[in-house]
Amino acid sequence: MTSATIDPHVEYKMTTNGLTNGIDIVALKAAARAQVHFELESSLPTPLELTRSLKAYPTSDLTPAIGTTFEKIDIHAILNSPECDAKIRDLAIIIARRGVCVFPNQADLTIEDQKTLCHKLGRLTCRPYSSGLNIHPLNQSTMPDGSVDPALATLTRDPSKKLVKQAGFGFRFAKQKQSGADGWHTDCSYENVPADFTLLHMKTTPVTGGDTLFASAYEMYDLLSTPYAKFLEGLNATFTPPGHTPENIVDRMWKGPRGSPENVGPELCASHTIIRTNPVTGWKALYGTGHHMEGVDGLAQEESDMIKHHLERLITDNHQLQVRVKWAPDTLVVWDNRSCYHTATFDYTDERSANRICGCGEKPYLDVRSSSRRYALGLKK
Ligand SMILES: [Fe+2]
Q1: How far is the CA of 198 from the centre of ligand 1 (A)?
Q2: From CA 310, how far away is CA 304, in angstroms rounded?
Q3: What is the pLDDT of residue 5?
């Protein structure tokens, strides 16, 4: 076995014992983790300040807590303008503060534009140099020429399957699904280095339905009492996609790093701090819940279940921290997975398709010096 860096051009053959082409993945990940932690400890980022580069573009907030729409903006034109970097950096700060931003009528936006925008949103703010575009472990797109684009996920669903799956009757009780609470999540939280920005460009929409809901992780943190927040700040949670094991996905998963040298190997499982600091805003957010959250590290099962259930309910019981985004063809929506949760709505029967590009951010961390959003903005808690 050798200590080596991962070559993104090599197709690695993975096995479930962590060995890949003779490279010890476990040792490699430990080295990458040590490097990331060293970078963190030596240089915690300070929150970024806005310039006025976007003052010409009208916006409207969707709710006080979360969501902003840019009424008239042409992202493709900005990406090809001399002021591109200043504007994209400000855009990233606004998205990180507001959680999610909506950009209607982006008909000229290409998939390459989407990748460039994702790259710049991260690189012009706080994304480490070891992080790049995220590669989904199982969902890559085959292009018209037959090539595979690992960073692009084309989301096309057959909603009728979902509706059928939810119906049916058992011996005594209906098997109908009556809660969508388990749909809330942040992207790739099962990775050691999870997502920062996700960009979803809608191509085809049903006449109605298929909305995406978002919930502010900053507001969830601000709902906590001070003693309970302090308690959670000392805890980590483990994240893993339910139902996935290395054995049942290793043969069909992407055989290489998934956007970070730490995101490699067949085990989709990571431990993250429950309260994290968004480095762009410097605000604390509640990160330790959602679909992939398995449990709280080090606690008894009953204790962990209590916390898991309580944190889930902070989203589902508080519609003042949610926003519902309605789609139209060519709408681009960008969200910061460090600032908010999201969930899909499977209530449609017509075709719906979208192109998704997502970036890997930093390893989640808590800077105890950071403040809550409400404190930073001078809002009443
Ligand atoms: Fe998602």
Answers
A1: 8
A2: 10
A3: 46
